[in-house]
Amino acid sequence: MDQTLFRYCPNCNSASFHQVSFKEYVCRTCRFNYFVNVATAVAALLIWQDHLLLSIRKYPPAKGMLDLPCGFVDPCETAEEGLKRELQEELDLEVNHLHYLCSYPNRYEYNGVCYHTLDLFYQKAFMHKPVLHPRDDITDARWVKTTHIDFE
């Protein structure tokens, strides 16, 4: 069980900080409790005709790999607001009427830390191919025919 994220209590700096369950740490000195909560991530399945939009990651983890347009929800945002913001930041794309598909518990490893996430997936089908301007966390975006996607 011990997957220690912290060596010292964030409240009193004691070295008596220990993990008591999968999601809870307690300080033996000051009794401070810390709960590890999941981060909310959002992803879009953007569809035009029989093509799915895939982005190319600009940074680790998985730099250079194909991905769905996605990102993390900021504090005080709804999932839909977060996804709309991410699509604007990464593709310069304004999207309305996203359709919720499903959620999936996941893990996101970054800088040697494993973050537990709850990934929320949304879909949007376009009648006309939108103009995209890849930027921010992606280097490019490609419309890929769904029958040609290699999920490996």
Notes on the protein architecture:
It is a single chain. The model has no long low-confidence stretch (mean pLDDT 93). Strands 4, 5, 6, 7, 8, 9 and 10 form a 7-stranded mixed sheet that branches. The relative contact order is 0.21. The protein has 1 helix and 10 strands, in the order E-E-E-E-E-E-E-H-E-E-E. With 152 residues, the protein is mainly beta. It is 9% helix and 43% strand. It is elongated, with a radius of gyration of 19 Å. It has one helix spanning 79-91, and strands at residues 17-19, 24-27, 33-35, 39-48, 51-57, 66-67, 70-72, 99-110, 113-126, 138-145. A hairpin with an 8-residue loop joins strand 5 (51-57) and strand 6 (66-67).
Q: Keywords, please?
A:
mainly beta; 7-stranded mixed β-sheet; elongated; 152 residues; single chain
What would you say about this model in short?
By secondary structure, this protein is mostly beta strands.
Set out the fold topology.
Blueprint lengths: L16 E3 L4 E4 L5 E3 L3 E10 L2 E7 L8 E2 L2 E3 L6 H13 L7 E12 L2 E14 L11 E8 L7
Parallel strand pairs: 4-9
Antiparallel strand pairs: 1-2, 2-3, 4-5, 4-7, 5-6, 5-10, 8-9
The largest pleated sheet is described as: 7 strands, mixed
Number of helical segments? 1
Q: Please trace the helix and strand order, writing H or E for each element.
A: EEEEEEEHEEE
Instruction: Tell me, briefly, the overall form.
Output: elongated
Residue share in helices? under 10%
Number of beta strands: 10
Proportion of beta-strand residues: 35-45%
Low-confidence segments, ≥5 residues, pLDDT <50?
Answer: none
Mean pLDDT figure? 93
The termini sit apart by 31 Å
